[in-house]
Write a structure and sequence with these properties.
By secondary structure, this protein is α+β, with helices and mostly antiparallel strands. Helix content is about 40%, strand content about 10%. The two termini are about 45 Å apart.
Length: about 850
């Protein structure tokens, strides 16, 4: 219990609360200061501290010694509130020092509920403890200052004598003099309150309400926030109706089901292959004799029902945004190659590469990152420059082979690299390299859904997809459907590959339980999974005593090598076709390398500590994973299946560092470095083709199916199914000319910004523009022109779309401003429509 024999405790508690709340608010204002005019920031400045002043005054009042209930409440409530506020401010400062971003308490509580998520949070413990130490020192220094400010002011205001240990000098005051001082204090307080309330009344709600929130209130608000009402179907009209009017409709043609989205909501029919029991993911094809006849009603077996009583399903006929390029011929080099030779695709390997940016796949001379490295050196003589270029030439040699893009550095040979994978493909062969690809989500597992299922992710925080319906069949489920029409596989090696059954396996060396990834993988249709939890058990087949955890999520990729070898051996032995999905992990924070792997220094000595250290570690992890990709490809060569395996390599998202953006990491950061990713379709017997398409990874599944059909790697039944399904997915096939527009409509692209429910990246294949669209309050609208500013150095911002449109028009012209206005409308429509398709209750 706090007593008068503890003269420092009460004022110290007040100081902790005041320093924590004020520091938190000043940091909050600093992060938004550049987004509003300085004059308005100064004018409304007093209104930002209303909550802090009230909380501090209440704390002072409760700290006054008394024999009443007030004293008891104060002794319980004040230490708890001060401690909570102190911890929250320490977390806020620590998060800012690491990422340059603002912490969101609702996301913290979500991550904190996950055991693996808590490991992620603990990775910032040093920054948190450092911030806590700074706050404690500041609180100790300002203890007397807080008492000197609050004691005379609040004592005069409420005619209360301050507690002796709150401000000992106040007891020596002459009572009459103290009475005389009360009048001006009260007068100035009243005038201040009236003025502040007046400013509070006249100031705009956006963005100033968000800027006024104070801890611990914002934290408690996040804890008790209630979910919104469920989204109802039919209440989300497409915002550009002139583009979907009857004059633009398209009639059915062969496998193409037509396109008429405005009035006729289309018919969901069951194709011939949907007559039996279908795998999960194909529910909409089993809904016979049912079609939507209006925005709010469903006709089922001739009886109208309310649309909210049944599930929503995706129908390409109804989709106002869908643009298909399946009416286009194959790319000419591909047509010639398939005419001259057989290109079997017996197996498919999909490699999703953690935090892999396009500008490191491969790393190139003259790139933004290369310039950052060069600029870190105060002086570069010819010898040092030659040595640096030699080091950089060995950074991503495998990526150079896979993409067909040269890094631009002079090649040198190292003894340690004698075992690196060497391409066996003939000159001019190797597959498709796609430039211009953005991820569909900067949260790994949302990206995983895009890559494996050909759908947009759900625009809500974290992985609510596991509680909803993924509205298209994932590739593993499609392969399951193929299996239903086949007899059991035999062990005869001569059996036609098209008659073999598929097996699907997912492998990664890190945990599979973070954000319920294991549940997601089961939902998507994987038959077998391998995670850290499997390979780290002593009873695991390839367990060894010196297995090494390189980060808080698990092991390095090499720990799954023997399991990959087993999977390939089993597929060959059982005469099966293998779909193997692998997620790399070393390029995830903290970018640690296994013991024995030498770390290279790319940046200068003096620049590493505190500035380029993270980027240098990241580049080393990129080099490690690049070598690992070569080891995987060597395994395919070793097993004799390289020439019959399609390998798809794609980044799950990028990774922003301080070399790119003031805000680092992916969390609530829409910077282009978090979205631009590599995409390669590797096959030694396919021609090397360079493709440029402003698209997203939603095109992966249609492209895989198209390749399987065009290479005649499917039998007649499976080909018919694949051709049907290719006309169902939203993405375009990348082995055909990409359609940026169609009859006045743009090919819109979307990307979820981690954690998912608050910000959206909106782009279009028709223009180089990009809009960061807030889905909730507290974020700015951001515009960039990737053509003139590829690294997004000069961004335009606005707290309202009208404000941003005005700024864009003044810099980029009327057409760019009009595009922003349309992108905002389409983005908001897309968010609501996607929730409807997932049958997600908000």
């Amino acid at each position: 219990m706090l007593t008068s024999r503890q003269p420092f405790v009460r004022p110290f508690l007040l100081s902790i609360l005041v320093v924590s709340t004020v520091t938190s608010k000043l940091l909050h204002l600093f992060q938004h200061a550049g987004s509003i005019p300085t004059a308005l920031l100064a004018l409304y400045f007093p209104t930002f501290f209303i909550q802090e002043v009230l909380l501090s005054a209440a704390t002072w009042f409760l700290l006054q010694k008394s024999t009443s209930l007030r004293s008891i409440v104060g002794l319980i409530l004040v230490p708890a509130t001060a401690s909570l506020t102190f911890c929250l401010c320490s977390s806020q400062l620590g998060f800012y020092f690491v990422t340059g971003s603002e912490i969101r308490w609702d996301a913290v509580t979500s991550v904190g509920n996950d055991a693996e998520g808590r490991k992620l949070m603990l990775s910032g413990l040093k920054s948190f403890l450092g911030s806590a130490a700074i706050l404690l020192i500041m609180s100790w220094i300002f203890t007397r200052v807080c008492s000197a400010v609050f004691d005379p002011w609040l004592s005069a205001l409420f005619s209360t004598q301050p507690t002796e240990d709150m401000h000992e000098e106040s007891m020596l005051d002459n009572p009459k003099a103290a009475t005389r001082r009360k009048r001006p204090v009260r007068l100035w307080t009243i005038l201040g309150v009236i003025g502040t309330l007046g400013l509070w009344i006249i100031r705009p709600k956006v963005p100033y309400s968000h800027m006024s929130g104070a801890i611990p209130f914002t934290f408690l608000e996040a804890l008790v926030a209630s979910p919104a009402e469920a989204h109802q179907s039919g209440d989300n009209a497409f915002p550009l109706p002139e583009l979907i009017s009857e004059g633009h409709w398209k009639a059915p043609d062969g496998r193409f089901k037509g396109w008429s989205p405005k009035f006729d909501m289309g018919t969901t029919t069951s194709p011939d292959w949907a007559s039996g029991k279908l795998p999960p993911g194909f529910e909409r094809w089993s809904q016979k004799n049912k079609h939507v006849v209006g925005p709010n009603t469903i006709k089922a077996n001739g009886t109208e029902q309310n649309a909210t009583t049944i599930k929503n399903y995706y129908n390409p006929v109804n989709d106002p945004l869908r643009i298909t390029n399946l009416d286009q011929k194959l790319l000419e080099p591909l047509t010639l190659a398939l005419k001259d030779r057989d290109v079997p695709i017996t197996h498919v390997v999909l490699v999703m590469m953690e935090s892999t940016r396009k500008d490191v796949f491969p790393f190139k001379s003259g790139s933004h990152l290369h310039r950052e490295i060069l600029n870190s050196y105060k002086s570069l003589d010819s010898d040092l420059l030659q040595q640096l270029s030699a080091n950089l030439s060995h950074l991503t040699p495998i990526s150079e082979i896979l993409t067909g893009e040269s890094g631009g550095f002079p090649k040198t040979k190292r003894d340690a690299e004698s075992s690196l994978w060497e391409d066996t493909a003939a000159a001019g062969m190797g597959g498709l390299n796609v430039n211009g690809v953005l991820t569909g989500g900067s949260l790994s597992f949302k990206s995983e859904i895009v890559n494996h299922c050909g759908v947009w992710p759900l625009p809500v925080d974290w992985m609510d997809e596991i509680k909803s319906d993924i509205y298209q069949p994932c590739i593993m489920q499609v392969l399951d459907l193929f299996n239903q029409f086949k007899e059991s596989s035999t062990t005869e090696s001569s059996r036609d590959l098209r008659d073999r059954k598929w097996t699907s396996i997912f492998m990664q060396a890190v945990t599979g339980v973070f954000a319920d990834q294991n549940i997601l993988n089961d939902q998507m249709g994987f038959k077998k999974t391998v995670y850290r939890e499997d390979i780290g058990q002593k009873g695991a087949k390839h367990y060894h005593d010196d297995i090494e955890e390189i980060n808080y999520f698990g092991y390095s990729e090499r720990e799954v090598y023997p399991y990959m070898e087993d999977a390939i051996d089993d597929a060959i032995k059982n005469n099966e076709r293998l779909f193997l999905s692998h997620f790399t992990s070393t390029t995830h924070h903290p970018w640690a390398l296994p013991k024995g792997v030498q770390s290279e220094q790319y940046f200068s000595d003096e620049s590493l500590i505190g500035k380029h250290e993270d980027m240098n570690s990241y580049l080393n992890s990129v080099r490690y994973v690049d070598t690992w990709l070569g080891d995987m490809l060597s395994l395919l060569d070793k097993k004799g299946i390289a020439n019959e395996t399609l390998v798809v390599l794609v980044g799950d998202h990028g990774q922003a560092f301080q070399e790119d953006s003031p805000v680092t990491g992916c969390y609530e950061n829409g910077h282009i470095s978090n979205f631009r990713v590599p995409l390669v379709f590797r096959h030694p017997l396919l021609p090397k083709i360079q493709i440029t398409a402003n698209t997203t990874s939603i095109s992966i599944i249609p492209t895989i199916l198209d390749l399987l059909v065009q290479t005649k790697s499917l039998n007649e039944k499976d080909s018919g199914i694949a051709l049907d399904l290719m006309n169902e997915y939203e993405g375009q096939s990348l082995i055909r000319p990409y359609k940026a527009t169609d009859d006045g409509r743009q090919a819109w692209n979307f990307g979820i910004i981690s954690a998912g429910g608050e910000m959206l990246s909106v782009g279009s294949a028709a223009v180089p523009y990009r809009l960061i669209l807030p889905l909730t309050q507290g974020f700015e609208f951001v515009f960039s022109n990737i053509e003139t500013d590829p690294d997004e150095v000069n961004l335009l911002r606005g707290w309202s779309v009208d404000d941003l449109v005005s700024r864009v028009r003044s810099v980029h012209g009327d057409k760019a401003g009009q595009w922003v206005a349309e992108a905002e409308k389409v983005g908001k429509w897309w968010a609501g429509e996607t929730k409807r398709l997932y049958n997600h209750a908000e």
